[in-house]
Each structure stands twice: as C-alpha cells, then as structure tokens.
Specification:
The complex is a heterodimer of chains A (about 60) and B (about 130). Chain A has helices spanning about 5-15, 15-25, 30-40, 45-50. Chain A has one domain. In chain A, α1 crosses α2. In chain A, about 50% of the residues lie in helices and about 0% in strands. With about 60 residues, chain A is mainly alpha-helical. The radius of gyration of chain A is 11 Å and the shape is globular. Chain A contains four helices and no strands. Chain B has about 130 residues and is mainly α. Helix content of chain B is about 75%, strand content about 0%. Chain B has helices spanning about 10-30, 35-55, 60-65, 70-100, 105-130. The two termini of chain B are about 10 Å apart. Classes of the chains: A mainly alpha (about 60), B mainly alpha (about 130).
Chain lengths: ~60, ~130
C-alpha cells in the first residue's frame, strides 16, 4: 500500500500490522467491512484494491 | 461484523491455566497424591506467568492469548479450535473403537463421542438460525 506504512494503516483501521501484511501479501482476504474501510482509507473503490480470483470466492 | 482489534485481557490465558491447573492439582490432592499436587501447582504458576508475559506482546499469538485480536486473528483462533476439535473427535472415536474391539467398556471415549456428537448437532442447528 503506497504512502503509508503497514503499522500506520493498521492503526487507522484498528487491526494488527500482521493482518495488513497478510492482506498485502495475498495470504488473507479481508471481510467486506474491512475491505470497505481499506478502500475508504485510500479513497478508492474496493474493486480497485482487491481483485480476488473466482476460485477464492467459492 | 467488527473489524477492529479487540482489546481482550492480558490475564485471559493465564487465568485459564490457573483455574484448569488448580482444578487438576486439587483433584490430585483429594486423591492423596499431595506431592504431585504441589508439583502441579508450581508448574501451572510458572506456565501462567509465562502466558501473562507472552500475552503482553504484539504478535498474533499474544493477541489470541488475550482473547482479543482483529478479524484475522479471531479467524486463526477459530480455525485452530476447529482443527483441535476434529483431532480430538478422531482420537475419541478411535479410542472407543479399540475399547469395543477389546470387549471392554468404551468408558470416557464413548462419553466424549456422545458429547461431541450432541454438541455438533446442537451447534449446527443454532448457528443456522443466525446466518
């Protein structure tokens, strides 16, 4: 995530730095509320930030 | 659904160790094995102290030990709990089968199988109503 450290973003969102790291490395797909919060934080649409494979959504 | 990191309580895991260990130590004391009971108390006091110190950290395990954590950490805890339940169920079923094959009473293994089966069924019925 550009312009912000993982720790800073974690602090803004109220989650752990490890969780931000896992999302960034595509090991963890966040819940819809968290995905929306991340998108709002970067003034972007959710689909601009997350593009999961169809396999992940089954 | 909340996404925020729950605060939890640093003493959560230590409390479980003290209460659980205390119960086992008390049972041992009642059975007459006083030396073993004292050793158990000493062991669990050390374990609870380690858990309390560890729970003050910043990692995933520390957050789970505080019974807090964010959605991912709670998910890790939930998955680990599910795997533990599955393995314990398999062990209980295997134990009951072996005991039955020996023409012995399945005893505690049988009780664990019944409790596990009932718990799963009731949980499934109740959880379905919520989702």
């Amino acid at each position: 995530m550009k312009g912000m450290s993982q720790g800073e973003l974690a602090g803004v969102l109220g989650v752990s730095r490890q969780t931000i790291n896992s999302i960034e490395n595509e090991r963890y797909l966040p819940s819809l509320p968290l995905a929306l919060a991340i998108a709002r934080c970067f003034s972007s649409a959710v689909e601009e930030i997350f593009n999961p494979d169809k396999e992940d959504m089954k | 659904m909340t996404t925020a990191t729950g605060t939890g309580h640093r003493a959560a895991a230590a409390a479980v160790l003290v209460v659980g260990g205390g119960a086992v130590a008390a049972a041992s004391w009642v059975s007459g094995d006083h030396g073993f009971a004292v050793a158990l108390v000493a062991f669990y006091v050390v374990a609870a102290t380690v858990a309390f110190v560890w729970a003050g950290g910043k990692g995933d395990v520390a957050a789970i030990m505080r019974a807090g954590g964010d959605e991912r950490q709670r998910g890790l805890d939930r998955d680990a709990t599910a795997i533990t339940g599955l393995v314990m169920s398999i062990a209980a079923i295997a134990g009951a089968v072996v005991q039955t094959a020996r023409s012995a009473d399945p005893g505690a293994y049988g009780v664990m199988c019944v409790v596990g089966g009932i718990t799963y069924t009731v949980s499934l019925v109740l959880l379905r109503r919520r989702r």
